[in-house]
Amino acid sequence: MVLQNESLGVDVVLHELKQRHVEAFAVLIKPAAELPLAKYRGEIVRAAVSSGWIKSPEMKLADVGEMKVSAVRWLSEKLASVYTEAMEIDPKE
Questions:
Q1: Which of 5, 46, 76, 77 could be 41's S-S partner, Cβ–Cβ 3.0 to 4.6 Å?
Q2: pLDDT digits over 21-33, tens only?
Q3: What pTM was computed for the model?
Q4: Are 11 and 75 in contact (CB under 8 A)?
Q5: Residue 61: which residues within 8 A CB-CB, separation 6 or more?
Q6: What is the full DSSP assignment across 22-89?
Q7: Alpha-carbon distance 70 to 86, whole Å?
Q8: How far apart are CA 74 and CA 91, in angstroms?
């Protein structure tokens, strides 16, 4: 899956998520109510990096802090949607 927003300079390719990816991500995320919104958004992106979600480009945790605020916001929202979609059960199954 590709998450791309040219105007924000975001071009991220995700691995196909496996159970290990979502488990690691879930362990790293604190409830949103415990953090200021900007910190929470950064933590979502860092959790995706730490959990091996991102295939390319190669990202380190420190890279998140150097991203534009708007790029972190956009990417965190997309990653949260990917997580939600991965956790949903198709009612047809």
A1: 76
A2: 999 999 999 888 9
A3: 0.92
A4: no
A5: 46, 49, 50
A6: HHHHHHHPPPGGGS-HHHHHHHHHHHHHHTT-EEES---HHHHHTS-HHHHHHHHHHHHHHHHHHH--
A7: 24
A8: 29
